[in-house]
């Protein structure tokens, strides 16, 4: 009896929007496990949109910017503009992302659709009290509006 074995290799190509959705979901799950309450797609007062903005158990505000590809990172140099609206900032990327191209100052999260891990802690930069109060109030209102089924993204 002659047995022949054929090996088949399957390569799955994941689109950039699918990668973004998976990394965002995994980073949100990680933030939740760390005690944060995350919201996705939050428009900040300066017109920028945070992929994830999360409120911590002690009132700290954490913003996560998801990068789905090298092109996404290289064409978006706005990450410094998120820092005035958070106590800590991090990038979140997929496991296969070439992490060496990312700047070393922000935190780093590696995530997939199921969860994530903090590879580099975000450097704390505490907000001024008045800004924290305004952002926390706006975050709470945004979360309540979304819970009521209202389609909103802007902090007001």
SSE ordering: HEEEHEEEH
**Can you tell me the overall shape?**
elongated
Sheet with most strands: 6 strands, mixed
> Count of DSSP E strands?
6
Overall SS class: alpha/beta
| Low confidence ranges | none
Rounded average pLDDT:
92
Distance between the termini: 75 Å
Strand order of the largest sheet: 1-2-3-4-5-6
The residue fraction in helices comes out at: 25-40%
Number of alpha- plus pi-helical segments: 3
Roughly what fraction of the amino acids lie in strands?
25-35%
Radius of gyration: 18 Å
What does this structure look like?
- The chain has 156 residues and is α/β, with parallel strands linked by helices.
- The protein contains three helices and six strands.
- The chain has a six-stranded mixed beta sheet with strand order 1-2-3-4-5-6.
- The relative contact order is 0.17.
Outline:
This protein is α/β, with parallel strands linked by helices.
């Amino acid at each position: 009896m002659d047995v022949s074995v054929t090996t088949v290799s399957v390569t799955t190509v994941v689109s950039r929007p699918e990668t973004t959705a998976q990394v965002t979901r995994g980073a949100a799950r990680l933030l939740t496990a760390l005690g944060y309450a995350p919201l996705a797609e939050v428009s900040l007062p300066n017109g920028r949109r945070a992929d994830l903005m999360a409120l911590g158990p002690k009132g700290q505000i954490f913003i996560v910017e998801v990068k789905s590809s090298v092109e996404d990172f290289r064409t978006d140099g706005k990450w410094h503009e998120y820092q005035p609206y958070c106590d800590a900032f991090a990038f979140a990327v997929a496991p296969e992302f070439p992490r060496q191209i990312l700047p070393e100052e922000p935190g780093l999260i590696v995530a997939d659709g199921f969860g994530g891990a903090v590879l580099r802690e975000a450097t704390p930069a505490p907000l001024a009290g008045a800004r924290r109060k305004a952002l926390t109030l706006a975050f709470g209102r945004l979360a309540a509006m979304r819970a009521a089924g209202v389609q909103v993204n802007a902090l007001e």
